[in-house]
Each structure stands twice: as C-alpha cells, then as structure tokens.
Write a structure and sequence with these properties.
The complex is a heterodimer.
Chain A: H1 12-19, H2 26-42, H3 57-69, H4 74-87, H5 98-125, H6 135-158, H7 160-163, H8 168-201, H9 212-237, H10 245-278, H11 284-362, H12 368-395, E1 403-406, H13 407-424, E2 428-431, E3 439-442, H14 444-461, E4 465-473, E5 476-484, H15 497-508, E6 512-517, E7 522-530
Parallel strand pairs in A: 2-4
Antiparallel strand pairs in A: 1-3, 4-5, 5-7, 6-7
Helix pairs in contact in A: 2-3, 2-4, 3-5, 3-6, 3-8, 4-5, 5-6, 6-8, 6-11, 8-11, 9-10, 10-11, 11-12, 13-14, 14-15
Chain B: E1 11-16, H1 20-32, E2 35-40, H2 43-50, E3 57-61, H3 69-79, E4 84-89, H4 94-102, E5 106-111, H5 116-141, H6 145-155, H7 160-167, H8 171-185, H9 190-197
Parallel strand pairs in B: 1-2, 1-3, 3-4, 4-5
Helix pairs in contact in B: 2-3, 6-8, 6-9, 7-8
The chains are: A alpha+beta, B alpha/beta.
C-alpha cells in the first residue's frame, strides 16, 4: 500500500487563497466561457417549459473543466458563467428578478464544484473498488446533475412565482427535465473532453494498430448493439412505443465487456439515433419520457464501463504486485543459495589449491608434460580461490551483523547510486552538508537501498530539484527527501513499491517513514531512525 | 624465522578443522615448510590430550560442530597461555575478524580458500612468539617470590636503592637478589633483563 497522503490542512485563508485562479488557469477559463456559451445556445433546441433544455452539453463542459483543473476553480467557473449569461442578456442587472436569474445561473456551478471536491475527497480515502480510477469520475458525472437538481428544489417549492412553475406536476416535470438534460450533457460531453485533455498532457507515443482481439470485440459490440436497435425499431414499428430495455441491456453489456471508451461510443450511437427525433415538435411528455430512457441508458452504460475499467486496473495492479513479490522471493532464495554455494565451494577449494600448489612445486623437475599440467591446475585453482573470495565480499555482505554507519558515508553512497538516473531525468539532487558525527546503526546495504528508493521516487515525481538532508532530532536521526510536485498527480507505473520496500527496511531497523505534502506543493519523505545508544 | 627442515627441533603445530581433507592438506603443507604439523578433526579430543603434548602454534577453523574455534581457543589458553593461535574460516565477517584478534588473542584471521603465503608467515610468526614466551617463562620460573618482586621493580627502571626503599630491604640484600636473578635468567645486565620482561 502506498503511503497515505496526509490530510490537507484547512484554514479559511488557505481555502480563499486557493480558490483564486492562477495565471495559468486564465486560458482555460476563457476557453470555457466560449465553450459554455456555444453549448448553452446549442441546447436550446431541446428546450421546454420549466426547464432550459432536455440536453444540456454546457454541464458536460463544466464538469470536464472542474475535473481536470480541480474543484478550486469552482468560484471562477461560477463567475465565468455569470459573465457569459450577462453578456447573453439572460441576466440584466437592475431589471426585476435579475437576482433570481443570477442565482439560477450560479447555483449549478457551485453544486458541481462541491460534488467534484467531495467525490475526490472520498475516493482518495476509499478502500473499495469505487475509489479506483475511473470510477470516481463516473460517480461525479452521475452525482453532480442530481445534486444540482436537489439544490434547485427549495427554490421551485417555496418560490414558484420566481421560476414560473406552478403545481406539483409542473414542478416534478421541471426538475426531471433539469436532471435529464444535465445527465445527458455531462455523460455525452465530459468524457471525450477529458480524453482530449489527457491525451494533450501525456502525448501518446503512437496510435497502435488494432489487434485481432480488438477487432473481434468491435464485431461483438456491433452485433449486440445492432440487434438491440433492430429489436427496438421493430417494437416501435408494431406500435409498442419505443422500449428502452434492449438498448439498455446492449449498452450495459458493451460497457462491462469492453470498458468505458466502448461504452461511451455505444451511448453516442444510441443518442445519435434518438436525439434527432426529440428535437422536433414532439409533445413534452413524450420527449421527457424518451430523454429519461436515454439518460438511464447513458448512466448505465457509462457506469458499467467505468466499473469494468476500474476492475481491470485493480486487477493489473494486483498482478504487478504479485509478480514483484514473486521476483523478490526468488532473489532472496537465490542469494541465500549463492552464499551457501560459496561456503560449500570454499572448503574443498582450500584443499585443492594447497595440493595443486604442492603438486606444481614437486613436478617442476619432472617430465615437462606433467609439469605443465600441474602448473595449469595450480594456476586455475588459485584463480578460482581469488574469485570465490571476491564473490563473497560482494554477495555475502549482508551476512554481516549490523554496524554503526556514518550517515555522511551512507548519503554519499546514495548520491553515487542515483546520480545517473537523476541526470537522465534532468533533476538536480541537492545534498545539504551532513554532520560527520551523525551515526545510525544498521545494515549498510539495506539502509542505502531504502534512501535510494525515496530519492528515486522524488526524482521521478519532481520538477527538477530534489533536496536531501539529514539532522538529529532528540534521540532520532532524520533523513529528509523533499521535492516540489507539479499539479498532475497521476500514479506512474512502479510508484509505491519503492516506498513500500523503503518502509519495510526502515521499520525493520526500528524506524519510520512518513510522507507529508505541504501547502506549497512540496512533498517531503521523512525517514527517521533511532540514534545509536539513545535507548540505553 | 624459519627452521631448516632437517633440524631436529621442528616446531609442533596443530591444525584443527572438521573437514578432514583440508586439515590434512594444511598439516602437510606446514610439514613441508619445516613444522611438525598434525591435523585434528575434533577440538575436544585435542583438548583432552593437549597438556601432555603442547604445541607452539594452533591453526583452527572457527565454524565447527560442538565447540567452535573461539571456545576452543579460550579453553586451550587456560591450559597453555604461551600457545599462538591462528584462525581460519569460510564465513568471514568483520565482527568475527575483530573478535578473533582482540578477544581471543589470535595472530591472524584467514579467509578460506587460504592464502598460502599469509598462512605460512602467520604460523612462522606464531611459532617464534610462542618460543619466546616459553623461554621467558622458563627463565623467570626459577625466581623466588622476593626475587620476582625485585625483578619487577628493576625492569620498571628503579635503582637498587629505590627498590630497597620500596620493599623495605637494605641495598645490600637487593644487590644479592639482583645477582641471583641475573644468574638464574642467564642474562648479563639490566638491558637484557628489561628485554626479558617485555
């Protein structure tokens, strides 16, 4: 298990400071304003009384922005939407009811931000498969529209005259329209936007050619979806309405089988068939019913896909760890074996070397052929003896008892071992001068390995600078590895295992490893060991 | 100091190793280099007969069955403090290397496969050291208790008069003791006495 992140320290000042957008966010917000305005206009085709639209892609753009840039932009997003709607003439400051309009515009943005923050917060602490990516995004995409509708409920109930909706039937219809429109907008628009952002940040090396298995999957999905659409069309033709069940089952099947990309593609196909119908002059009730069916298909398809992806990811994490454990176990056995082999060899080799040398000495004057053979045996036995001694020094080191190690020498070893990798990653490892009297007690190779792992993690995650320092703190010796982390906190392959090994080693030495993320983005791994002699 | 092979007083050296072949090979090697070496498989057996036939030097393995090399060294020193001990091992560790020299009075700590030159020079050194120890012991063994006291003070650099003051004797008596000491140890002067005491 990777080290748990420490809970962020919350204070009013810090929160207020964080919600102010940085300069780097401005292009995003400007792009968002344009996209929001365009998406808002495009949605008008599916409008109706009491709700703006039954398909609201602007909500998808909003969620995509909040998800990729973080919920800290909530207030900025809210302000952007207010500005856009003011320019569009929906909010006219000073006119009667303009505050209600502004409230109606600001509320969804705020709710979306809160939902994204909550989902991320809960997912980071979750032990279940709901916390495994991309499940949190799926949850946020479904929860945010529902939450935004819930937030609108008090206004529609207690001030119906403000929203122009009256009566229970109209209220329910209005809210249903709202939630259906947002759900469709979010689930159809947010995933592709997020894929584009992700692909832009982590440029894929090359588009790989589809394999035979993928082609077979594609064929299977096409057959399933085609059959479902055919069944629905047939049922509609013979006057049984437009049943959603076949498409629902097909989309769920595709999502579970092939993940969320395939699920989303299936959703888009279904939506592309249904939406042109509903943009015409259908009665509101029929349109609402169709969009509700579509929304349930979309939700089921996307969640099923997300779930399948999360399962696949958890499974691959698990098998990677299994392989590593297996590898570590094999290495351990191999080392024990080689130490034993060296010992077993050195005993008879001693005899052999002594006797070979003697044979060589007494045959110097003998037949040249015999002398030559004896000399060769002697030379080879001597060479083998040297080899065994050297091997033992290299591999059998840890049969040595733990000893007192100057920390400065340990850190020197670590920097020497990590220099090449740091240079390749164009990272400077800064080592503060270390008190030459600072000593720890332990096995040199293991402790060096632990610090090397922490430094390597820092090198992989940092933005060009890693600070390595050591000091004494009461009866502990503390080694700190600090790096500043850029915003993206995607887990890289292999991360976590190094920290795991480091922690196991340090705990075996009676110490601890902690990782703290400071407010300024600095990540600090602290390795603390008991000072020798402190406990007596 | 290497003794010629044909000399009758070849130094007795014991080789203790639970690997019979290695013990025999080392013993034969030492025999070829002028020692009267003998291999022993079991340190306990050697201890039981050691008092009757003490050696000048013992080459012993550290990892052995019931009694390890260090335990064996302690017990053999109780019988004979003047024997030189050389350790050898197939499991070398820094801690053992330090212990073997500091705590168990070993002359050297040899890693298997053995470095022959180093083994031979360690044994030669051990034999020489042991011979010197034995001769000192032999020569000072004849001293009486009072002569021993005078000897100890003299070699610390005290004059006859000072020794007389410290022991409460007359300078004349000290003079007599000193003459007896020189006669018994076969030395001819204070310088040789001091050399003997080292």
């Amino acid at each position: 298990m990777p080290l748990p992140p420490s809970p962020p320290r919350l204070s009013i000042g810090a929160v207020a400071g964080k919600t102010v957008p940085r300069l780097a966010d401005l292009p995003w917000l400007i792009g968002y304003a344009a996209a929001f305005a365009a998406a808002h206009q495009a949605a008008a085709g599916w409008g109706g009384q009491g709700f703006y639209s039954l398909l609201y892609p602007a909500a998808g753009v909003r969620l995509a922005l909040l998800w990729s840039r973080g919920p800290r932009l909530t207030l900025a997003v809210m302000a952007t939407e207010l500005i856009v709607q003011t320019i569009a003439g929906i909010i006219v400051p000073g006119q009667a009811g303009w505050l209600t309009a502004a409230n109606g515009v600001a509320r969804p943005a705020l709710t979306y931000g809160i939902v994204v923050w909550l989902v991320r917060h809960v997912a980071a602490r979750s032990q279940s498969s709901l916390g495994v990516a991309p499940m949190p995004l799926g949850l946020a995409a479904v929860t945010a529209p529902v939450a935004a509708t819930m937030a609108a409920l008090p206004w529609t109930l207690f001030s119906p005259e403000l929203t122009g909706v009256s009566g229970l039937r109209q209220t329910v219809a209005s809210l249903t329209g709202f939630v259906v429109g947002d759900l469709l907008g979010v689930l159809l628009i947010a995933p592709p936007l997020l894929w584009v952002v992700h692909a832009w940040q982590y440029r894929p090396r090359a588009l790989h050619r589809p394999t035979l298995r993928q082609l077979a999957g594609l064929a299977e999905a096409a057959v399933v979806l085609g059959a479902a659409i055919a069944a629905s069309t047939l049922l509609a033709e013979i006057g049984l309405g437009v049943p959603a069940a076949p498409a629902l089952l097909a989309v769920a099947w595709i999502g579970l089988r092939f993940g969320r990309t395939a699920g989303w593609c299936a959703i888009v196909i279904v939506a592309a068939i249904v939406l042109p119908f509903t943009a015409t002059d259908l009665p509101v009730a029929e349109r609402l019913a169709l969009h509700m069916s579509l929304a349930s298909i979309v939700v089921v398809g996307y969640l099923a896909g997300s779930f399948a992806d999360a399962q696949a990811r958890a499974q691959s994490d698990l098998s990677r760890r299994d392989r590593m454990l297996f590898q570590a176990e094999r290495l351990k056995t191999l080392r024990a074996m080689s130490v034993a082999v060296i010992h077993e060899i050195s005993q008879p080799l001693s005899t052999l070397a002594i006797e070979a040398k003697h044979l060589h000495e007494i045959t110097v004057a003998a037949d040249p052929d015999i002398a030559q053979t004896a000399a060769l045996i002697d030379r080879k036995a001597a060479a083998l003896s040297t080899l065994v001694r050297r091997l033992r020094r290299f591999g059998g080191r840890s049969v040595d008892e733990p000893s007192a190690l100057p920390l400065s020498a340990l850190v020197e070893t670590v920097t020497a071992l990590t220099r090449a990798e740091a240079r390749a990653a164009r990272v400077v490892v800064e080592v503060s001068p270390i008190d030459p009297d600072l000593v720890v007690f332990g096995q040199e190779i293991e402790l060096a390995q632990a610090v090397v792992n922490l430094v390597r993690n820092a090198v992989q995650a940092c933005d060009g600078r890693v600070a390595l320092s050591a000091h004494q703190n009461d009866d502990r010796v503390v080694v700190m590895v600090a790096n500043r982390c850029p915003d993206r906190r995607e887990a890289r392959p292999g991360m976590g295992v190094g920290a795991l090994v480091a922690r196991a080693i340090v705990e075996a030495h009676g110490g601890t490893v902690e990782r703290v993320t400071h407010a300024d983005g600095t990540i600090c791994a602290t390795l603390s060991l008991p000072r020798p002699g402190a406990e007596t | 100091m290497t003794l010629p092979a044909n000399q009758p007083d070849r130094a007795a050296v014991y080789v203790v190793d639970d690997d019979h072949d290695l013990g025999a090979a080392v013993a034969r090697l030492l025999c070829r280099h002028g020692h009267a070496a003998e291999p022993f498989l079991d340190p306990v057996m050697l201890l039981s007969v050691y008092a009757e036939a003490p050696a000048l030097c013992i080459v012993t393995d550290i990892m052995m069955g019931d009694l390890d090399g260090f335990g064996f060294a302690d017990r053999v020193r109780m019988i004979d403090p003047a024997v030189a001990i050389v350790f050898m091992t197939a499991w070398p560790t820094t801690a053992n290397a330090v212990d073997s020299v500091r705590r168990y009075g070993g002359l050297d700590y040899l890693e298997k496969p053995l470095d022959e030159t180093r083994l031979l020079s360690a044994v030669d050194e051990g034999v020489a050291w042991s011979r010197r120890q034995r001769s000192i012991r032999a020569r000072t063994a004849a001293l009486s208790a009072r002569e021993r006291q005078v000897f100890d003070l003299l070699v610390q650099g005290h004059s006859n008069k000072a020794v007389a003051d410290i022991l409460g004797l007359s300078p004349k008596t000290v003079e007599d003791h000193r003459a007896a000491i020189v006669a018994k140890t076969g030395t001819n002067g204070l310088a040789q006495l001091i050399a003997l005491a080292r």
